[in-house]
Design goal:
The chain is mostly helical. It has a single domain, classed as CDP-alcohol phosphotransferase transmembrane (TM) domain (Four Helix Bundle (Hemerythrin (Met), subunit A)). Helix content is 76%, strand content 0%. It is built from seven helices and no strands. It has helices spanning 13-24, 29-48, 52-75, 83-105, 109-131, 144-160, 165-197. Helix 2 (29-48) runs parallel beside helix 4 (83-105). The longest helix has 33 residues, at 165-197.
């Protein structure tokens, strides 16, 4: 398993063109990573104002930033010594902001908090396992892309049926929470099996 998160959109024409344009404009990968957090913070305001399509757009923009920062770093030779920190830390902050925003909009901040904590746990297990010598495991069923795509779908559903927004968002957060528990278990189990097989 590669150390780089597998993202099929990375090979598309539009993604390559956007990464090239951003690199030419002089944006660094670290700046793009920080911008992803800005989009996630704006998403909180959108959730609180019941602007669900705008929240979905912010989350999509965050995911694009998460993809483009790595492309600029790797494919346009702009890696930096602190790049790994900027690659990981903003992701955790963005996840927390988006999921807590959804929790507040659902009228159940506890669900947002649990989803956020368990989302961070999936990443922690991946990083811990990789540091111990196991392959980097980006598997699901509730990895970052799956979490955010589910949340985007929930936002679109809220825009279509605003009277049910609390039920929709609460259901999405429950699915994310349960999915993160399964993902954490699978990643930890895979890492332990791999490391024990190296005896």
């Amino acid at each position: 398993m590669a150390d780089r998160r597998p993202i099929k959109e990375r090979g598309t024409f539009w993604a390559r063109g956007l990464a090239k344009a951003v690199a030419k404009l002089g944006f660094t990968p670290n700046q793009i990573s920080v911008l992803s957090v800005v989009f996630s913070l704006v998403a909180i305001g959108c959730f609180l104002q019941a602007r669900y399509l705008a929240a979905a757009l912010c989350i999509v923009s965050r995911l694009i930033c998460n993809m483009i920062d790595g492309m600029v770093a790797v494919e346009h030779n702009q890696k930096s010594p602190s790049g790994e920190i900027f690659n990981e830390l903003p992701d955790r902050l963005s996840d927390t902001a988006s999921l807590m925003g959804a929790g507040w909009a659902a009228g159940c901040s506890e669900l947002g908090l649990w989803a956020s904590l368990l989302a961070v746990l999936t990443a922690y297990i991946r990083t811990l396992s990789h540091g111990a010598g196991a392959p980097a495991d980006f598997g699901g069923p509730m990895a970052k892309q799956q979490r955010m795509k589910l949340l985007i779908g929930g936002c679109v559903a809220c825009a279509a049926w605003p009277a049910y927004h609390e039920v929709i968002l609460a259901s999405v957060l429950v699915l994310i929470t349960v999915g993160c528990v399964i993902t954490s278990w699978r990643r930890a189990s895979n890492a332990i099996r791999f490391l024990e097989s190296q005896k």
